[in-house]
Amino acid sequence: MTSAFISREETVAAELCSLFRRFGYLPYKMQKFEDYDLYVRFKDYLLSDSVITFTDEGKLLALKPDVTLSLIRSVKEEKGGIHKLFYRESVYRRPRPGEPIRELLQTGLECVGDLDAFALSEVLLLAGTALVRISEEAVLVLSDLDILGAVLDRVTPDAALKKTLSRLAGEKNLPGVRALGKEYGLPAEELEDFCVLLAISGSPEEVLPRLRPIAEKAGASGAFAALSGILSTLKGTPVEKVLRLDFSAVSNGKYYNGLAFRGFVKNLPEQVLSGGQYDNLLTRMGKSSRGVGFAVYLDQIPLLDSADETDADVLLVYGKTDPETVGKKANALRAGGKTVLALPEKPKGGTFHEVITLTEDAK
Question: What's this model's pTM, rounded to 2 decimal places?
Answer without folding.
Answer: 0.79
